Batch of 2 targets.
Target 1
Amino acid sequence: MKRVLGESWAVPSLDSHNRDFFTKGVLTLQRCTQCKHVQHPPEDVCEACQGFELDGFASAGVGRIESVAVVTQSVHPLLADRVPYAIVLVSVEDAPGILVAGNVVGSDADAVRIGDRVRVVFEDATDPRSGEKLAIPQWEVIDA
Ligand SMILES: [Zn+2]
C-alpha cells in the first residue's frame, strides 16, 4: 500500500524495540514473557513487573477509534498535497488498555469519527539507511 503522507515523507527509525512493530506486516505489540503484560509503545522494560524479557504479541489488528485529529494545515512542504488527513488513537480489541496511533486510509478525513471500527493495514516503505523493508501500520475504517 502507498504511504498516506507520501513516498518522500520520513520513515520511522528502527531500533531493537520497534523493529517488529514496523516490519512484521502484522500488528505486533510488545509482551512480557514473564507476566504476559502487553504494552505499547515498546520499551526496555515491562511496565508491569519490570522484567527485561520481552517478545511480540501478534494482534488481530482490529480496534476502535478513541480519538481523532484532522490535520488541515500542512506542517511541512512535503505534506502540502496530503491535507486533510486524520490522525487517530485506536484501542486494540485483543490488547485491552493499548492505544496505537496512526493515520486513516481510504476515508475522507472529515468523515472519521470516534467509535468507528478499524482494522490495521500496512504501508510499504524502505528504510533509507539499512534498505530494510518496512510495513508501517495504519488504519482503515471497516464499520463507521
Ligand atoms: Zn512483566
Target 2
Amino acid sequence: MSIGSLIVPPRRSLTAALAALTVVAGCTCAARTRPDDTKHVMGTPPRVRDIRVRLTTDQPILQIRVAGPYRMLVAGRVVDSRPSSDFVAVQPQGDGLRIGEQILSAASVDIVPNRTGDLYWRTKSETGWGPTRRLPGNLRLTVDSGGLTAINVVDLETYLVGVVAAELYPDFHREAFRAGAVTARTYALVQMSERTNDDYDVSASESSQVYIGIPDGPGGRAAAAAVRDTRGVVCTWRSPRGERIFSTYYSACCGGVTQSAAYWGQALDIAPLVGGIRCDYCRIAPAQAYRWKPVRVSKAEIMARLIARDSQYRILGRLRSVVPIERTPGGRLQRLRLTGTSGKVKEIRAEDFRLAVGSRVLRSTNCRIEDAGDWLVFADGKGFGHGVGLCQWGMQGQALAGRRAGQILAFYYPDTHLTRAY
Ligand SMILES: [Zn+2]
C-alpha cells in the first residue's frame, strides 16, 4: 500500500495552496524578518527548483572526474568539454581556478554532465584522498579567500535519496524509511524557502542533513523506494496563519523523551516541536546511543576544542570548572558556566558545548557532569543527538511494532499530518 493512502486531504484545494505559495515566494523580505519556522505556506510549485547542496568549503584542493560528455561553463559560456578518464585536481589560482592544466580567471565554474551520475569527486584529508562520491546533477565550484567551495545542484527528489540512505541504516524497516523520506523532504523545502538569497540551501553534513550523492547497495535501494513511494509528500501543521511546513528536526536517539526546539533559543515554540514526548521505542538502539557509559575528557582537551570553535574562550586561561546552571524540563543540560584559571567566567549553551567537545564524544546533553581534577566525566548519559523532533531509532522501533509512516510522524510531530505538496 502506498503512503498516499495515509494522506489526509488538504483542507484547502491544492490550487489555493499553490497560489498562496506564489505570494510567499515573491515576498522574501517580509519572510526573512521573522525569525521563526512557521511562516512557510504549505506547498511548492509542481516544478520545484533544484536544491543547492554545499558539499564542502574552504578546501585547498579537490579532485573531480566526469565519466562522459559534459560542458564546463563560466557565466553560461562553454569553456571546455573534453572528457577525462582520470581525476583532475581543482585548486585556487590567483582570483580564479585551476582545473587540471586549465587556468580560468573566473571565480565560479559549473560542471554540467550530459548524463546525470557521470560526475565523481573527492576531497583530501591529512591521511590522503577521501572516499570517491558519485554525484547526480551538476557541480558548481567557486573560489574565495578561504579556498574552494563545491555545490551540487540537483533535483530535490534525487537529493533526498542521497540523504535518506546516509541518515538511516540499510536494514531499517520500510515504514521507517518512508517516514525518514518525508522528514528529509520537509526539512529541505523549508531550507530552500529560507535560503533564496544565499549561495546554497543546505550543507551535506550533520549541520543540515547528511548527503552522500548517489548511494549504492541495499540502503540506496531502500532509500530510492521510500523517496519514490512518498514523492511530494510533506509534513504540515495547521498554524494560526494556515497550513505550514516546518523545520522537521530529527536526531538519532532521544533517549526516552524528546526535547523542545525552543531550548535552542530560537523562536521555534510551535506545537509540532514542543517536545516532551515519551518515547520508549528507541530502547532498541545500540547501548552507546540509548544509555551510554561515562565519558572522560580532559579539561585541557575541552579547552582546546572550545577555542578551536571560538577564540573568545582564550580569556578563561585553563579550564577550572564546568557547572550546569540550567536544565530543560526534559532534564537535559541547557546552560553551563565555564570558569577558568584566569578568574574569568563564561556561559555557554549546553548544545554548543557538546558540539565543541565533539558530537560523537559527548553524545547528548542528557547527562551529569562530574569534576575529576584534570578531567570531566559525563555520566548517566541518555540518547544520541539533540533530541528535538523525530527520534530515528524510535521511528525504527515503531515501524517494527507495525506502525505506519504517517502514524510515526504524527507521534513525534504532534498536531501534524501528511500533505501532498506536488
Ligand atoms: Zn526515542
